[in-house]
Amino acid sequence: MTIVEHSPALAPLRQARERFLTGRPLPDGVPDEVLAAWRRARFFGVRHDLDGPLHDPEPPVASALLEAARPVLERVAPALGGHSALLLTDERLRVVWTAGEVPGGDRCRDLSEREVGHNSAALALRTRCRAEVHGPEHFLDVWQDVSAVSVPLLAPETGQALGTVTVATGLCAGCGPHPGAALAEAAAVAVEAELLARSRTAERVLLDAYTRATDAPGRAVVALDGRNRLISEAAVRLATPQVLAALERASTGQESYDATLPDNAGCTAAITPVRHEGRVLGIVAVLEARAVEVPRPVPRPALALAGGSVPWRHAVARAVELARVPEPLLLTGERGTGKTALARELLGETVPLVADAAESPELGVKYSELADGRPLLLRHAERLAQPDVAALNSLLDEHPDVHLLVTYTPGTPPGPCFQRLLDTLAARSVALPALRERREDVRELLPVLAPRPAPGQPPLSWTLDALRALEEHPWPGNVTELAHVVRALAEHRRVTGPVRRAELPDPVREGPAARRLSPMEHAERAAILAALRRHGGNKARAAAALGIGRATLYRKLRGYQGVS
Questions:
Q1: Which listed residue, of 36, 239, 271, 543, carries a Cα 20 to 30 Å from 404's Cα?
Q2: Pair 233, 245: CB distance under 8 Å
Q3: What InterPro entries does this protein map onto (predicted)?
Q4: pLDDT (tens digit, 9 = 90+) per residue, 479-524?
């Protein structure tokens, strides 16, 4: 590995960063994703010189990730060269394990962009693929002579992002691929393999405990470990979403495994921890119906806010933060991701003017009606007629603080006038992730999407096999498509008990169908993959090398998913 103090290839970018920090105009050629990252760091108030107090993250507790990763990383660490470091972060980008030394490591224990700006760990977690950041691409001064490569760690069975593995070295000659990329990839693969082996052992132990508890006929038993649920037929009526949520909290407790059930639960729970090799893996709860049940309506969480995944929490938190100021706000995302529902939730009790370009491209909205401060919710902005786009541009030029919420679904390339509108709104925009990018939210969305059961009827529940099929489906229609499936099952099924995989629609039950590539597509796919390998997975550089736009590259990569 060649280490250089100042790589000639990065000299223009180093100069551009100095101009950015001092507020001077930037030269041409600064990569879009790097400039956007610098701007985010400035928006978050990150100090490039680390001057002032940094947020002190909560000390990480023992976790399944750390337990699985520590022995793997300790075996890998001796392969590091001099002036190198190996780091492990959790899903919140807190550094939970390190080997070696990296500049600023004593102060940078939280690698989120809100704390330290652009870095490879944050980029890898956001993109869910290997990421490299070199020298002046970083925002912090202390990392100007550091090159780093990070690989995301994904849960083997659910695909949930668990953290990252990072190799950091002195500044490498050239911009990639990083010489530590192979080491980071190998460490990530080994950690994920260890996680898979441990999860299968845990599932077998939980299943054995559940089987023993259900030996008595008619016994209402629920077994949980924070990822899986086993519910006996007798427990279906008693195991409401509120009861299951309380038991889930108990299954992940660190010391106490007592569950405080809701007052309207209608049952009690006797809980037994499930242990293996001195460690608690989950719980088995035996439910007993109470003598008197007084059903009370329980409010369900708003659909627009349902979901606990990192991408969704980040998007909602960003939208809530921006909505505190009554100024223009742009919500973007694929169809069905919940843009309009989130916009209405952000407005609270305020009743907006609503204009839907999908119903009529010529909206006919009198913009003078906004003078009294009443917000305008503009849906499907991509279908606006040209006169309305021009009118909106004029309105924002004259009144940049107008209270306007816009939903936009990217598709065909926008024209110059509409692109100007998007550029104006870009500073206050939030991109909502597709449902396939937050599969772990599917289980939380199901009880919110399901209709309320009739009096005396149990809520809709699901077998583990059905849940896995729902989580693995790509959902091109996102939450809207999932809602149609759930409501159709709730209204038309004629059997009792949890929904089985066999009851799901064919595309969901059978998984995404693979199609065969034509010879031309094979050649195109091979060229794209070769360019990505040459540029260390950096999609912007690969697109430039191929002579296509980034949007085109992303579209082609999505088109090749699930093909053979």
A1: 36
A2: no
A3: AAA_lid_NorR (IPR058031), GAF-like_dom_sf (IPR029016), Homeodomain-like_sf (IPR009057), HTH_Fis (IPR002197), P-loop_NTPase (IPR027417), Sigma_54_int (IPR002078)
A4: 999 999 999 998 888 778 888 998 899 888 887 655 567 778 888 8
